[in-house]
Each structure stands twice: as structure tokens, then as C-alpha cells.
Amino acid sequence: MSSSIPTSARAGSDDAGPSRGQLKLFLGYAAGVGKTYRMLEEAQQLKREGKDIVVGYFEPHGRKDTIAKTVGLEMIPTRSINYRGVVLQEMDTPAIKVRRPAICVVDELAHTNVPGSECCKRWEDVQVLLDSGIDVLTNMNIQHLESLNDHIFRITGVRVRETVPDWFVKCADEVVMVDATTGALLNRLRRGDIYAPEKAQRAMDNFFKESTLAALRELALRQTAHELECRETADVSSAAQDNSPLSPSSQKEVHDRILIYVTADPSTAMLIRRGRRMADYLVADCFAVCVFPRGDRRPQDKTVQSVERHLNFARNLHIEARVLEGDDAAETIVDFARRNQITQILVSRRTYSLWNRLLGKDLILRVVRKARDIRVIVVAERP
Amino acid sequence: MAIDPTERPSPEQLLADIELEERRQRRGRLKVFLGYAGGVGKSFQMLDEGRRRRERGEDVVVCALQPEYPPEVQEILKKLEIIPLLKVDGAESIDVPAVIRRHPQVVLIDGLAYDNPPGSPNAHRWQDVEQLLDAGISVIASINLQYLEKLQDEVERITGRRASTTIPRGFLDRSADEIVIVDAPAAESVGRGAAAEDRVALAEQHKLSRLRELALLVAAGVVDRQLETYLRAHGMDQPWGVQERILVCVTPRSNAAEMLGSGRRNADRFQGEFYVVYVQQPALSKRDQIVLEENLEYARKLGAEVEVLSGADAAQAILTFAMQKGITQIFVGHSTARHNGWRRLRSDLVDRLIRSAEGIDVVVYPH
Q1: Is residue B5 part of a domain?
Q2: For B284-298, how does the pLDDT look when each residue is reduced to its tens digit (9 = 90+)?
Q3: Given A7, A296, B15, B30, which is the most exposed site by the fewest CB atoms within 10 A?
Q4: CA distance to partner chain B, nearest, from residue A2 (Å)
């Protein structure tokens, strides 16, 4: 009986063939909190336990204490890639696959590879390693989580370009918070432990302000708690299903389905991230839906392109994208929502216009009136 | 948490902040490594910090250790000076006079939640720590979540047990300058093959995971309070929606239970604040009056701040309140189709909230 309890949906099975490797993610809130140090500490521990472990990529940043932690670990040489006259180092994923260790350490998950690499992003390289049955230890900072992009922009004033999609983080078997106090971090920065002096000063003027760091730290702590809760809920509900498919808790819960209304407006990206986060919290299905007029009344190319871009963005976050046709957008959306048992509709407040309202055409109000049985969330852009 | 961001700090509050700051400057500083269970690596991280500080030239001394350590911790201990614990009839306590005589810059204390043997000058180890701090010695100490007095109810809900020795509510709030969380999975499975499979082990793991989540949220709360103090000290308004402030508008006819439940959950999730308002309407029927009272009672039970607003213009009254409180989300019910006049008024309300609630999400709930 005990063997039939699934320990984790992602745990390796007894079936023949390579099962997917397991992923452990060390999450921090800024450079210098000690993610790499902690990850290498763990690697050394695994080596002491006799595991076959290699370092696939390591970014030394000239940090002595961290470099000392790599002593005795097998390093897979990086690949040199010439890009416009500059030689850059990238992780050699094929070489790691050939070496085939049990566990591979990969620094800086959010890194974007040099153009022309097989994978655009390092997290895609990690996918390749996991798919070939290698366990991976890796790390990233909270500001690289895609769905938090707007939030991070509000906190830091920086638009982070290198992001990791939420679904990838969700796949991690373990997420561990690497904490340090903001005071300790600022001291490390002042001592030159994190960056060279000139860069450190620039960092302190921008990202490394005490209040910014504290806000990021709080965000990382809450995100880790949330990741943990998701895994717990998944484990408990899968265990419950195993025993009695109709346990009271799973019966009571209404399954949420979220619809994000996609337009050409730039606020749509924010709406999609918000929808993604909600869907994660609620463990809900999520759709991104746009409406084009029927037949030859196609909107301008520019509009179509923007909408397409937003739909692609949604797809990258593992949101199901749908293009609908209809002359009355409000009616088309609500109709789709009814047919697909949508419980919540997300629209951007930017879609509101006084002029349309006077003409009785305002989309938001018409959706609200038509969808009386569905929750409608009008999302505002926050300053 | 109860700080209203729209309010300027009072002079008394500013003075209290300054006095606290001055007192802290004279005293040693206390840094706490918080873990959710034994074996998560608190000792290692704390002692490793001691080692790094010593290598940078700080005068660091260890004055309380656990009875046993794994080899990697023993390696670090070789590099540190140790003042042994005093032994009285098999019980142990910190040798406070010896530490004060030696007067290092920093002492390391692995395990804060201990009672001293009967007859000691201080009954509890945390009191020893107070004494060291007062003597101008900084302290780095480790502690497990289970020993915090203010978390006893929550810990008991998870584990079914209360700790016999606890650190009192006020001590950490008053004395700890910094808190660091030592996080690790409840079961280290990645890289080590399959996880626990038997029911008992799984249940234990589940408990640990819930303690772990609690520890992370406790730390987030501490950081949140520090952030507020910092912003206040620097005359800054809280510029980010770190917290959600949710306002639920109830009427006799709205689906209050769903809106209130959802409001509570959202507020909890984002450590937010939760307000409920009702705008007085003329001539409510007896039945509506009763339903309304029930709704407001339920809101109070959920811990909402309930307020009854008045004003002929309901939308305006709600918006004014929302601006004052820095509300981030307004929850309101869909209009009902039953009463024509009422319906017009209600749809008008939803319409106007969407139109005018600049920067605030409007969530329209079905009935």
C-alpha cells in the first residue's frame, strides 16, 4: 500500500529508461546573498556522500570564498563562442550530456546565451539536462521571475530583461531561499566582495538601496513560501486522490478558469503576468483570448502584430492562446467564457474609454453587464 | 502592520524611533539565525559567518555550542576561539562573567532557547544575551521557530506540541537587529534518489514543510516591519504595492460570503489589510436590514475593519474612503436584475467605480 502513495508527481519512477532529472533551485534576492556559495556547499556535501557530480557552469565573479568552494569539484570546460569579435564562454551542454554525471551544478539560471547558441536561454539548457536524466542544482534571483516583472519594475525602476518563466520554476522539485540581511549585503558590497569598487558604487546608487533590497527580500521570502505551499498542496491532493478520489477537500473546491482579454494595448503584458500569477495561486486553467472582427474588416497590421506578440508572450508562459472572430468583442468574449466554464475574466482598465461609454459601446461595462455569473476583474495600471 | 501609509508619523513615533536607534548604538547588536527545525544548517551558517568575520579581523568568540556536530562544522570550530559552557550538575550555562571579562566584539551562541540551571543569576539564556548586549558585546545566535512564544499556537496546530522553553514575545522584537532565515527542504531528495515513501515519514515531512512555510512568512513579516521603519525614518512614503489593501463593498443583496472570504484570503496572502464598507441607503426593508447586519457581523468575524459610510453619492463615498486608505482593490457585486430602481443605482455604482477608481483594481462579483 505504501508504495502506491506518490511522493511527488515529478519523482523518478521505477520504469525502465531515463526518468527526468530532479531540479533544485536556490532562490535569492540580489547578487551577493550567497546563492552560488550555498549551492557549491551542497555540491561538496553530495560529493562527500559519493555522488557523481560535476559543475556545468560557474561564474566566479572574482569572489574568493566562492571560488574556494569549487576546489575538488570536477568542472566541465565551457565552450568559447566568437560573437562579433568578442569571445564569450557558454555552458557546454552536449559535453555534459556525453560525460553523463548523476548531478550537474549550473550557475545563473536566468542567463541569456550568445545569439546562435542551440538554446536561447540557460534555463532551456537545463531542460535538456533534466530531460536526459541528470539532476540539476541551479540558482536565480527573485527579480528574474517573469510574472513579477511589473512588480520588480515598480520596486527598482529597472525593467529586467533576463527572465525565467514561472512554469519552469514550478517544475523545480525543491526551491530553497538563500537569505542574508540587507545590512550584511550592503557591507559585502562596500568591502568589494560582490563587485569591483566602481561597479559597486553604481550598484549602490541604483539597485542596492536598502529599501529596494528589503522589498526584494520580502518578495523572495513570500515567493518561496508560496512555492512550498504549491508543492505541499499538490502532494497532499495527489495523495488524497490516490486514497479516495472524492475526498471532501477536493470536492468542495471549485476549479477556477481564468480568461485574459488580449488587445494591442501595451498594458496587456501586465495583464497576462497578473493572470499567470492568479492562475498559479488558484491552480487554475488560464486562457489568453483576443477578438478580431469577421471577414475583411481586419484591423491595421500594426494592431494585429501587437496582438500576436501578446499572444506569443502568453504562450511562452504556458497560457492557452485563442483567436476569436466576432463583430461584438464583449459578446464574443462572454460567449466564449460561458462555453468554456470561465470563472474569472481579466480586462485592462486601459480598455475603458469615456467616448465609447457615451456611445454605449464600452467593452468593460458591456462585459460586466453580460457576464453576471462570472467574476470580472478590471485591472488598473499601478503607478 | 497597523501603520497607515497615508498618515504622517507622529512626533512621538519619530522620537521613539530615534531613541531606539540610539539605545541600539550603545548596545551590542543581536543577529538571529532562524530555522524551522534541527538539522537545517543553522549551526553551519552561523559558525561559518563567525569564521569569515574572524578572518576579516573581527574579534569573534564562541560561547555556547551544541553537544555534537558533523565533520564540516567541526572543521570551522577548529578556527574559532571557544569559551566553554559552565557545567553545574550536568546542566550547562553560558559563562557570562568570563565572556564579559574577555570582552570580544562578537560572540556566537548556538541555541538561544535554553533554561539555565536552578540557582543561576539568570533563569534563561536569553537573559544572558540581554546582559551581553548591554555590556556592548554583539551576539549572533541561532534559534528554532518552535521556541518563539508568540508562535506557540500556530506551531501547536501543526505539530500538536508546545515547547516547554520559549523565547518571550518581546525579546526578539525589542533586541534583535537582524534576522536571517536558514532555509532547506524538509527532505533533501534532489541528487539523493527517491524521497520518503512510508506514511509516517511523509506525514512528518508534511509537518516540517508547514513549519518551514511559517518560518518564511515570519521572516517576511519582520522584513516588512523593518522596511516600514526605514521608510518612516527617511521620510519616504511606501511607494510599492508590497501590501494589498482590499476594500469589499457590501449591500444587503450582494453575495457577501464569497466576496468577504475571497477578500480575507487575498489579504492574508499578500499580508494586506482588509476593509469592508457599507454605504447607508434610505428605507431598507426589515429583511434587508437583517441580512446586512449578518453580512457586517461576518466581516467582523473575519477580522475586517468595518465602516459604515454615509452620503447621497455612494460611489463618491467609496472612492473617497479608498483614496484615504490607499486601497489597491475594490470588490463589488454585479448589479441585480430584481429591482429596477435598485439595479440602475447598482450598475451605476459599478460603472462609476470602474471609471473613477484610478490605479485601483475593480473586481465585480457574481451573485
Answers
A1: no
A2: 888 888 989 999 999
A3: A296
A4: 5
